[in-house]
Amino acid sequence: INDVVLAMCSGALRSYLLTHDALPDKPLIAMVPVSVRAADDSDQGNSLSFAMANLGTDLDDAEARLRMCSASMNAAKARMATMTKAELIDYAIAITSPLILGNLTGMSGRFAPLFNVTISNVPGPREKLYWNGAELQGLYPASLLQDGYGLNITQTSYGDNMAFGITADRTALPSVQRMIDHLE
């Protein structure tokens, strides 16, 4: 499912950028949060690291983009499998430190980014939820942006449905609501 979500986002980004005559020659890179919590760990809160995924936005063919996303994530997972939990958390800190240092020093946006977009797939509840007898119809994620990074796509599942939340810098990405059309 994660690879399909990445490929869907890749195709939507490619279509969006083509309509704005802004598709770069090089593929976009997504920072993808990856849970590093052990299956038997019942702690509350997040325990995660990050993988960098080649989205293959330079590829015309949708199946080729899916294969690229899958191969890229498989390679990242293979690298991550050789690391301890502490190393994975340190790796996450290393990847995100340019964001933090850029904000602290005022240097954000002055250097080439490590990634172009954050894409996250968050599993939600499989069972229907209710509040005062009213059934929850959808669960739409909202996320955050870091200075110098203009797009975050977060997907959340609920029951048998998936919902995409797009958080974007509207000056960097005009008419970003069209991304939903491309995702559909």
Characterize the main sheet. Answer: 5 strands, mixed
State the helicity in percent bands.
25-40%
Q: What is the number of helices?
A: 4
N- to C-terminal distance? 16 Å
Q: What form results from the Cα inertia axes?
A: globular
With strands numbered from the N-terminus, the spatial order across the biggest sheet is: 2-1-3-6-7
Class from helix and strand fractions = alpha/beta
Instruction: State the oligomer.
Output: single chain
Radius of gyration: 17 Å
String of helices and strands: HEEHHEEEEEH
Average of the residue pLDDT scores: 89
Uncertain parts: none
Number of strands: 7
Strand percentage lies at 15-25%
Textual characterization of the structure:
The chain is α/β, with parallel strands linked by helices. It contains four helices and seven strands. The strands form two sheets. It has a five-stranded mixed sheet. A two-stranded antiparallel sheet has the order 4-5. Helix 1 packs across helix 2. The protein is globular. The protein starts with a helix and ends with a helix. The relative contact order is 0.16. The model has no long low-confidence stretch (mean pLDDT 89).
SSE layout and pairing:
Elements lengths: L1 H18 L9 E7 L12 E7 L7 H20 L3 H21 L11 E6 L7 E2 L2 E2 L15 E8 L2 E8 L9 H6 L1
Parallel strand pairs: 1-3, 3-6
Antiparallel strand pairs: 1-2, 4-5, 6-7
Helix pairs in contact: 1-2
